Amino acid sequence: MTTLNIQPGNIVVTTFGLYQHWSLVSDKRCDQGLYMLISATKRNGTVKEEPWHVVTQGKPSYITPLKSDRPLDEILATARQEIDQWRYSVSKRNCEHFVKWVTGMKLSSRQVKAGIEGAVLGGIAGGMIGGKPHWAKILGGAAATAGLAMLSSRAKKAEPAPPKDHTDNKS
After folding, report:
1. How far apart are CA 44 and CA 10, in angstroms?
2. What is the average pLDDT across 36-47?
3. Cβ(39)–Cβ(47) under 8 Å?
4. 48 with 83: CB under 8 angstroms?
5. Pairing of strands 35-41, 11-16
6. For residues 128 and 149, what is the distance between their CA atoms, to the nearest angstrom?
7. pTM (global) more than 0.85
8. What confidence tier does 8 reach under pLDDT thresholds 50, 70, 90?
9. Which residue of 35, 63, 116, 164 has the smallest Cβ count within 10 Å?
């Protein structure tokens, strides 16, 4: 089990199979003493401030080294203003978009970009394989390449820090 050195304002990335969920570490703690996380989810359809275990669901999580020039109180205030206001969209307003936006970075999602580019390239390649193009080859190539592209777009991990008070389930 890995212990994470969590600080308010950190960006936590949790791996859920092919995709990664991005969250902002709050300055509030839940009943278990762990920091709360603020994030946009399809599960909620909006932004919520929730306990660590609800957001990460026991999946491997880590801190990404992305840093903001904005003051922490401004980041958290901006994030909290979006609770129940942000309208989740996997392609235009997902968890990565949200975290980057509240921290003052460009509103973007490497996962969405990689998935779309991979699907297009895979669809083209699938259609070109052997003889006459068929929808199953095109769709299969698109899905396979989109998944691989998303895997390659993973967020970077921050350098390990001394243990503090959060653990993930990665041994």
Report:
1. 22
2. 95
3. yes
4. yes
5. unpaired
6. 19
7. no
8. very high
9. 164
